[in-house]
């Protein structure tokens, strides 16, 4: 069975949640960690991504660059994990869903009920999975 190509936003070096997601994804052997925008500090994020085995052209400086880069690829990631500060989850999750990616969002999914309802609507509209 082919592995699912997986990307992560946030969860960089020193984060509490990033290692947990990476270990969980490796546990069953179904995922290939293929892309990341791991830190709000561009150089630190790219460096850490490469140390984790992500190819330099898929070690992005921020989530916007990752969204553009992965959207343009024919071998784009199958899903992304959003492991950024809570207040950023809505914007990032919505953008990736709208671009046709499945999303695993760290809790809380959003900061308001209205934002949560919007994410549910976008996931239904795009036919993509949004898991928390």
Could you please describe the fold and organization of this structure?
With about 130 residues, the protein is of the alpha/beta class. It has one domain (about 5-130): NAD(P)-binding Rossmann-like Domain (Rossmann fold), CATH 3.40.50. Helix content is about 40%, strand content about 20%. A five-stranded parallel β-sheet has the order 2-1-3-4-5, with helices on both faces. Helix 4 (about 90-100) packs parallel to helix 5. It is globular. The relative contact order is 0.16.
Element layout with pairings:
Layout lengths: L3 E7 L6 H11 L3 E7 L4 H10 L11 H10 L6 E5 L5 H10 L3 E4 L7 H14 L3 E2 L1
Parallel strand pairs: 1-2, 1-3, 3-4, 4-5
Total number of helices: 5
Rg, rounded, reads: 14 Å
What's the overall average pLDDT, rounded? Answer: 95
The major sheet is characterized as: 5 strands, parallel
CATH domain fold name: Rossmann fold
Coarse shape? globular
Strand content: 15-25%
Strand order of the largest sheet: 2-1-3-4-5
What percentage of residues falls in helices of 4 or more residues?
Answer: 40-55%
CATH top level is Alpha Beta
* CATH architecture group name: 3-Layer(aba) Sandwich
Number of domains: 1
Which structural category fits the helices and strands? Answer: alpha/beta
Q: Count the strands?
A: 5
Order of helices and strands: EHEHHEHEHE
What is the CATH homologous superfamily assignment?
NAD(P)-binding Rossmann-like Domain
Query: What is the CA–CA distance across the termini?
Result: 25 Å
């Amino acid at each position: 069975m082919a592995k699912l190509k997986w990307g992560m936003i946030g969860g960089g070096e020193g984060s509490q949640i990033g290692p947990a997601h990476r270990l969980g994804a490796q546990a069953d052997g179904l995922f290939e960690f293929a892309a990341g925008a791991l830190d709000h500090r561009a150089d630190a994020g790219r460096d850490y991504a490469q140390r984790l085995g992500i190819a330099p052209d898929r070690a992005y400086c921020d989530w916007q660059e990752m969204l553009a880069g992965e959207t343009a690829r024919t071998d784009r990631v199958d899903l992304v994990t959003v492991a950024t500060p809570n207040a950023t989850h809505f914007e990032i999750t919505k953008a990736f869903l709208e671009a046709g990616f499945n999303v695993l969002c760290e809790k809380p999914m959003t900061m308001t009920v209205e934002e949560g309802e919007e994410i549910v609507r976008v996931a239904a509209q795009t036919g993509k999975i949004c898991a928390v």
